[in-house]
Design goal:
binds manganese (II) ion; alpha+beta; globular
Length: 226
């Protein structure tokens, strides 16, 4: 297979930047190579990150983002992920986001693109299934059959994103693989706080710095100090 030249993170973020006014939103502009991403590239086998942001915009959805080649590949999942392998969740591919977006939690002003509340709902690292490495991830993404293993705080185990053959913006299905993590437990209903701050959507929308509940706050603090 001919090796296609991969475009840099900067040009991949053109659409992301075009949609946003960075004088009005506190989301990161991205694209200047952060020390972290430069450092990651130098290591032989850098851990790739994933993040899921719960986003209460015009319609509540979960933004599922996988780091690949200097950007966060991004999908909007209206119903969020399911641990049940018999459930297929629609995942609409959206524009690549900057790596710096992985720590964004807060509010986007109303009237701006994506205006509403953003919560860090899960985060961690991920890898190709069966130690396939980055090439397996690139090929899986290009082919529309991306198999990966998540090592998150809430999501674990094997998953697949399958691209559907439909015209227009690519639509995918996010499906849990059958493994020891598969369960019918409703993770979206059960986990309603930030993995970063322990805050609820209401806490974040109200601009509270910390979780209202002391136990949630303690849990978040313990996580941060790990
Ligand atoms: Mn979103």
């Amino acid at each position: 297979m001919a090796t296609k030249k991969r475009t840099g993170a900067k040009s991949k973020l053109t659409e992301y930047r075009r949609k946003r006014d960075f004088t009005k939103t506190r989301e990161p502009a991205g694209g200047t190579d952060s020390a972290a991403s430069v450092g990651a590239r130098k290591k032989r086998a850098p851990a790739l990150h994933f993040v899921i942001q719960k986003h209460d915009a015009s319609q509540l959805h979960f933004d599922f983002r996988l780091e690949l080649d200097g950007v966060m590949k991004s999908w909007a999942v209206p119903k969020g992920p399911s641990f049940d392998p018999s459930v297929r969740r629609l995942a609409m591919e959206v524009e690549d986001h900057p790596i710096e977006y992985n720590t964004f939690e807060g509010t986007i002003p109303q009237g701006e693109y994506g205006g509403g509340t953003v919560m860090l709902w899960d985060r961690g690292t991920y890898e190709a299934e069966n130690d396939g490495g980055i090439e397996a991830l690139r090929e899986g993404y290009a082919r529309g059959d991306l198999k990966f293993v998540l090592h998150g705080e809430r999501l674990h185990g094997g998953w697949v994103l399958v691209r559907m053959k439909r015209p227009g913006r690519p639509q995918w299905l996010l499906i849990k693989h059958r493994d020891e993590y598969a369960t019918t437990r409703d993770v979206v209903a059960n986990e309603t706080t930030s993995v970063a701050t322990g805050r609820t959507m209401d806490d974040i929308a109200a601009g509270k710095k910390r979780a209202a509940s002391k136990t949630a706050n303690k849990k978040a603090t313990a996580r941060r100090s790990r």
